Amino acid sequence: MMPIQNVRTAPIDGQKPGTSGxxxxxxxxxxxxxLENYVQSIFDGIGGVxxxxxxxxxxxxxxxxxxIQIILRMASGNGAKACVVGQDGILSTPAxxxxxxxxxxxxxxxxxxxxxxxxxxxxxxxxxxxPNGGPAPEEITDTIYNHTKILDFYKxxxxxxxxxxxIGEQSVKSMKVKIxxxxxxxxxxxxxxxxxxxxxxLFSGGFRMCFDAMHAVTGPYAHTILEDMLGAPKGxxxxxxxxxxxxxxxxxxxxxxxxxxxxxxxxTDAPDFGAASDGDGDRNMIVGKNLFVTPSxxxxxxxxxAHLAPAYKAGLSGVARSMxxxxxxxxxxxxMGIKCYETPTGWKFFGTLLDAGKVTLCGExxxxxxxxxxxxxxxLWAVLLWxxxxxxxxxxxxxxxxxxxxxYGRCYYSRLDYENVKTAKANTLIDSLRDxxxxxxxxxxxxxxxxxxxxxxxxxxxxxxxxxxxxIRIEFEGGARAVFRLSGTGTQGATIRLYLEQVQTDPNRLxxxxxxxxxxxxxxxxTVSDLFAFTGRNTPDLCx
Length: 544
Hints:
Elements: E1 4-8, E2 22-25, H1 26-29, H2 34-45, E3 53-58, H3 64-77, E4 82-90, H4 93-102, E5 108-111, E6 123-129, H5 138-148, E7 153-157, E8 168-172, E9 175-180, H6 184-193, H7 196-204, E10 209-212, H8 218-229, E11 237-238, H9 259-265, E12 273-277, E13 284-288, E14 291-293, H10 295-305, E15 318-322, H11 328-336, E16 339-343, H12 347-355, E17 361-364, E18 368-371, H13 379-393, H14 397-408, E19 410-421, H15 423-440, E20 444-445, E21 448-455, E22 458-459, E23 466-467, E24 472-476, E25 480-487, E26 494-504, H16 514-529, H17 531-535, E27 542-543
Parallel strand pairs: 3-4, 3-5, 4-9, 10-11, 10-12, 15-16, 15-17
Antiparallel strand pairs: 1-7, 2-6, 5-6, 8-9, 12-13, 13-14, 17-18, 19-26, 19-27, 20-21, 21-24, 22-23, 24-25, 25-26
Helix pairs in contact: 2-3, 2-5, 7-13, 10-11
């Protein structure tokens, strides 16, 4: 018999999970007891794992393998019945969500820091997803955090490592460990959603695409589905082998970090369609020939055309977007006669709406789009749905977007990130804006008149839970909007995110330069916030 060890420990500061679990520098997770403390707090926070089944996997970043071995030994030590693990420890976040639902598991532990860089000097993360396959709600994450503050021991089985490369069943003490193919179950699910035959015909007719996996987890999924199953030519997938440091890159699918893809799509011999995904496979970027499609516009297009895919032929029950996401999908939903929900940032807020059947599609400006097939955003699913639409319409990305804008108007949109701002200064900026809100309405600032100004709060229409302080919104007459929010996905300092939007319905103004269209609202937003005074930054670190 392998003994169960009760290891004495003490609370460790800084283990409060955010909207996507706990993210820290890799070296922090490698400190003595840090990972173990947090895992035990998760187990305690969900009422223990005795007799339960868990799904475990991650994005393959540095420390992924070692962390999974620790989690498996701790799950066994805490009496878990079984763990389902992706081969070699690899599971995209949407694939993990699907496995939780497919196996009717009691939840899952997903090892990822999403789009953050990986490596010994970069970032690592761990989050708990519930039995519905989605991120834990706030009451669970709060309970987990409370346990981190009182923990005095953790349980772990003393045993050899599990062979993560061997598909089949193994055991850790009395706990079964089932190693599964990381891709096959997810690929089966995709065949039930989109028309693979239509997409095969598209590729066989000479259609070309480039998918940038960014040296991250979607590489194996894209190679299998796009090239092997759908017949896209070999070489369609680039950077398709996952690496622990993502090829020494930044696996964030945006025009800055996916520069190789952007250069290909703006070349003289550009493919018809371009796409990229992120570290853990839950985000997507869509690109046409010489055209970057904003995540907000992508959500709007998918909403308008989803009925062309088999899974959505009956129509959509509703849609949802995060508050900072542009109002493009609102305009589409209004014409379609379906409800559009505005939620705080964080996929868990979509989860209750999806579980209740109130929405079918949902998305956020940070390149996340999803539907009711899982309870996470899903990067490759979005790409496949786009391919289905392209196959059915026989139109280019550019033509589809132009049609969308002519029909519903265009929401010119941009996000500006000011990273690694001292947390105190970032909080002071938001506090200052909050103090100004009551005096802004009706004021003319740099030529724009403030129509409304508030701090977004949300009451969940399903469970009536309330979330406050979710971002500052300032709307102007003429269809412009500025949103300020602090991001919770970084590992050091704070990221101030400024979102700019301008609605345009004039058919002669639908192909303007977004930078020029947004320059007035950008100027006003910087003036109102005194951003330079608080941060000393003249330019953002990232502009999409």
